[in-house]
Amino acid sequence: MPRYRSIFKDETKLDISYVPSRLPHRDRELRLLMEFFSFLLQFPAKMTQRVIITGDIGTGKTALSQRFGVDIIREADKNGTNLRYVHVNCREYRGSLFMILHHIISLFYPNFPKRGYAAEELLRNFLNILDEENIYLILALDEFDSLVEREGSEGVYKLTRLQEMRQNKPQRFSIICILRDLKAIGALDASTRSTLQSNVISLEKYSKEQLRDILSDRASLAFKTLTVSEETLNLIAELASSEGGNARFGIELLWRAGKYADAENFDMVALECVRKAVSSIIPTVRKSDLASLSFHEKLFLLSISRRFKESENDHISLSEAEKAYNIVCEEFNIEPNSHTQLWKYLHSLSSIGIIETKVASVGSRGRTTIIYLSRIPARELEKELSALLEKEA
Ligand SMILES: Nc1ncnc2c1ncn2[C@@H]1O[C@H](COP(=O)(O)OP(=O)(O)OP(=O)(O)O)[C@@H](O)[C@H]1O
Ligand SMILES: [Mg+2]
Hints:
The chain is of the alpha/beta class. It has helices spanning 27-36, 61-78, 97-108, 119-132, 145-161, 190-196, 208-222, 230-242, 247-263, 271-281, 287-291, 295-310, 318-331, 339-351, 378-392, and strands spanning 50-55, 83-89, 136-142, 173-179, 200-203, 315-317, 356-362, 366-372. The chain folds into three domains: 27-203, 3-Layer(aba) Sandwich (Rossmann fold); 207-281, Helicase, Ruva Protein, domain 3 (Orthogonal Bundle), CATH 1.10.8; 287-392, Winged helix-like DNA-binding domain superfamily/Winged helix DNA-binding domain (Arc Repressor Mutant, subunit A), CATH 1.10.10.10. The protein contains 15 helices and eight strands. A hairpin with a 3-residue loop joins strand 7 (356-362) and strand 8. Adenosine-5'-triphosphate binds next to helix 2 and helix 9.
């Protein structure tokens, strides 16, 4: 039996739960968080802090908070402060303050009983435990909107204010609220809102270039050297950028593409593997879309798919496509259509979303049309079209 070969060096580096040691393009936000919480390293009992991290899907909110957690604990350890960071996904506890508090307490006391307490008592218990053990805590409440939805102003108010009402006792915990859309907080009453909203860190969507840096960093941790080309990274970055700058989508594509490459026993993540990965996540073209193309559109698309199948280049020029089309026409023994006609086909193919086109300048004045195929494996496209054309010919 042949030995199993993999282009992965360590695929856990692409896992959802992996917290990367470096977060490219989030340095500024990480520093800001450190500044907001720097008092914890000097006089932790004197105050508490509340910070909101917000941003669209896959902009790194969870990763940023977790990275910060690890970093600040390391700093606190150095100067002997008993600081902990606890990250809770509120949605996992259906937004229930009781369940969330119970979970946190059980991290310190694993057998803490579930019955016989109201949320407020639980909160007092929780503060007592922190007092007894002399613990300071940063509580990251991820998907905070689900807590707001379930508990409303009262629950959030309790959480933020109760410890401040304890007299002559140290402040014990600070909060980081993480949510996609600040609108969710709008449902709270004005005073609760104002206790939360003083420090907001908004994460912008990643640009294609930023996604490329993130993916490249992650690829070098997860894959063996020289198995992921620049072209492959660019294609994935482009796709993740068109999915709203979502880094998670990009990392998942990278992982799946690597899996397809392993399954084919390739020694690189070919562009074709990326196309396969994306079409497995979001099916882009229905077979009926292909069937409804005209005969020559099918021939033209067949020639485009053949070019891409043979190439590790992420694009081809219109003139290359035209040459390939002429060869296909010869094969089918049919007169090729004119250049102008092909140009029209290109438009209709890109408007259904099968291919993408871009006009690029060549030299000082010339312009040329470039064709991309990013969402459908060329091999599948070719197979599908060949079958359709066979029926029609
Ligand atoms: N700047 C970055 N550098 C490296 N990896 C990143 C960066 N930003 C995000 N990631 C990675 O991208 C993925 C998605 O990030 P994360 O889960 O933090 O997004 P999110 O904003 O919390 O999304 P959601 O709103 O869906 O919860 C994770 O695997 C994370 O490690
Ligand atoms: Mg998240």
